[in-house]
Amino acid sequence: MVVETNRYYQQFLDSSNEKPPPQHEVTEAEMFAFLAMTLQMGHTFQHRLDDYWTKMEQLFTPFYGQMMARARYFHILRFLHFTDNDRNGVDRTDDRLWKIRDLFEIIRTNFSKFYNPSEHLAVDEVIVKFKGRVLFKQYIPKKTQTFRHQNVQIV
């Protein structure tokens, strides 16, 4: 992620007519901090991304400002990349995950090393109302939506 993010930023600088002030390359430590902050944002909800760095007393959370400057976080977020766009030999028409394929394989391999499901495994299916066009979702108009909460089922 660090290598590809830096490569994508360099490609942007090379192809851009505008010359923004140069930023130093993303380091591995910065990438870990960026990922930690992004995960933490899922637990501390703010309406806008800027609000995590706000100084307003009601919303102030010192964690984000201490970890990384807002401008640096936005720089990494803007140029975050997982694969070289110019990589030859990649058939982009067949593989819909080509941009994250390498990361996906690393995660899949590591998860399979550390998780071995037992014979007692329960998989719960959740149906959510959705009428958009996504290949991996299935729209079933006649199916009612169910909500499960503490062994109570509402239909």
Main beta sheet: 2 strands, antiparallel
Coarse morphology: extended
Helix content range of the residues, please?
Answer: 25-40%
Major sheet strand order: 1-2
Which parts are unreliable, with pLDDT below 50 for 5 consecutive residues or more? none
| Alpha-beta content class | mainly alpha
Q: How many discrete domains?
A: 1
H/E order of the elements? HHHHHEE
Strand residues, percent: under 5%
The mean pLDDT is: 82
State the end-to-end distance.
44 Å
Number of strands: 2
Question: Which helices and strands appear, and what pairs or packs with what?
Answer:
Elements: H1 2-15, H2 28-41, H3 62-67, H4 70-79, H5 101-114, E1 147-149, E2 152-154
Antiparallel strand pairs: 1-2
What does the model show?
- With 155 residues, this protein is mainly α.
- The protein has one domain.
- It is 37% helix and 4% strand.
- It has five helices and two strands; from the N terminus they run H-H-H-H-H-E-E.
- It has helices at 2-15, 28-41, 62-67, 70-79, 101-114; strands at residues 147-149, 152-154.
- It has a two-stranded antiparallel sheet.
- It is extended, with a radius of gyration of 21 Å.
- The termini are far apart.
Question: In a nutshell, what does this entry contain?
Answer:
Helix content is 37%, strand content 4%.
Features:
two-stranded antiparallel sheet; 2 strands; extended; single chain; mainly alpha; 4% strand; 155 residues
